[in-house]
Amino acid sequence: MIQTIKSGNKVLALIFTKIKADGVKFLVPKSYPLQVGLVENNRGKRMVKAHKHRNHRYDVRTTQEFIYVERGNAIVVIYDDDFNEMAVFDLKAGDFMLSVAGGHAFSIEKGSRLIEVKQGPYPGDKRAKVFKED
What we know:
Shape: globular
Order of helices and strands: EEEEEEEEEEH
Strand order of the largest sheet: 1-2-8-5-10
Number of domains: 1
């Protein structure tokens, strides 16, 4: 299941739970700077032909962040651009999300393991992030 969290017409996050595919299935619009796909083989042995990627110059003006819960669970809170809470999800092992816009926060349970992917190079918290004021 894919759940889309929006603020008006603006997509803030995509939450993926219990996603299945047979073969290669891309799960986000082609226009997104971070492409998320699922490769699953439910049949006999499959081969992805040897390949490499061409050099391209991308004009990325927003950072998208991908979070995969490998084990355990994490509560994620999705915010709009003004830090208004829009949704809360309990992500479990095998679930993943793509933060598209707005903000987010996590509460990560002991023993959990999350994998995070986002565009780089990373300039550090002070240049890359705006934190919610309490």
